[in-house]
Design brief:
single chain; alpha/beta; 7-stranded mixed sheet; 3-stranded antiparallel sheet; 5 helices; 21% strand; transmembrane helix; PGAP5/Cdc1/Ted1
Length: 256
């Protein structure tokens, strides 16, 4: 959630947290309807050690439920970095409730024993993850925990024309969407926010991307505008200089 949260001091962490609250207007959202998944930049886990101090500090600032039910949709948070899986039983086969697993690190992007454990024990219909900063989707076998398909269409220009995916519910197959970053600091060309829509009958769900304007395109546009303006100023100055010199030379002569 915060790019420098893992190694920030307590004062810096508090300042980053206040900025985060102001950007996303957290005071206007109920705390029990917001799920915060800690990442490696928050508590470590990739290039830094995960410590109890970092984890406790994150929980104090970003308190959110591990399991949250919203109508017929159940959100469950797992932590691949700390290998935390809530003790939940699989949903009944005929239940139209949709179980959504939220993980900072992708589960099917790099199949592992942890991913297989989550799929086999929890049998989720949906997995939402992040970490890679780019949009992608995977499908996996719930029985074996193996990855079945991979689609990284965010690298394709068609993703900007058809940024919507529709998934049919299955008791034997799960789908994972890797959410892209919404921060310009991550150094990727495509950024945006994702919206997931769930069918009340639990038969299908859709995921739609709301792309943000490209930072690189904006910078190139600004550079072109600045170049044109600078060229116009130079041309104007060059055109006015001969006129001024002729005016000075003509005014130096007197009529006798």
């Amino acid at each position: 959630l915060m790019d420098e949260g893992s190694f920030a001091t307590d004062e810096e962490y508090q300042r980053y947290f206040q900025r985060f609250k102001e950007i996303f207007q957290l005071d206007y959202f109920p705390a029990n309807k917001t799920v915060f998944a800690p990442g490696d930049n928050d508590i470590g886990g990739e290039d830094e050690l995960v410590t109890d101090k970092k984890v406790n500090r994150f929980k104090q600032h970003f308190a959110s439920p591990t399991i949250y039910n919203l109508g017929r949709v159940q959100f469950v948070q797992v932590d691949k970095m700390q290998r935390v899986v809530p003790p939940l039983s699989p949903l009944p086969p005929n239940d139209n409730q949709t179980r959504v697993v939220i993980s900072h690190m992708p589960l099917l992007g790099l199949p592992s024993a942890f991913a297989a454990e989550v799929l086999q024990k929890m049998r989720p219909q949906v997995i939402l993850s992040a970490h890679d900063h780019k949009l992608a989707r995977f499908s996996g076998d719930i029985e074996t925990g193996e990855r079945l398909t991979v689609d990284t269409s965010s690298d394709n220009w068609l993703a900007n024309w058809q940024p919507s995916w529709r998934f049919q519910r299955s008791d034997h197959q799960t789908y994972e969407v890797v959410v892209p970053t919404c921060s310009y600091r991550m150094g990727v060309s495509d950024m945006g926010f994702g919206v997931a829509l769930f069918d009340r009958r639990g038969e299908a769900w859709c995921y739609h991307m709301l792309w943000l304007p490209s930072r690189f395109h904006a910078l190139i546009l600004y550079l072109c505008i600045a170049t044109v303006m600078l060229a116009a100023v130079v041309v104007t100055q060059c055109c006015l200089r001969p006129c001024r010199s002729r005016h000075k030379s003509s005014s130096s002569y007197r009529i006798l």
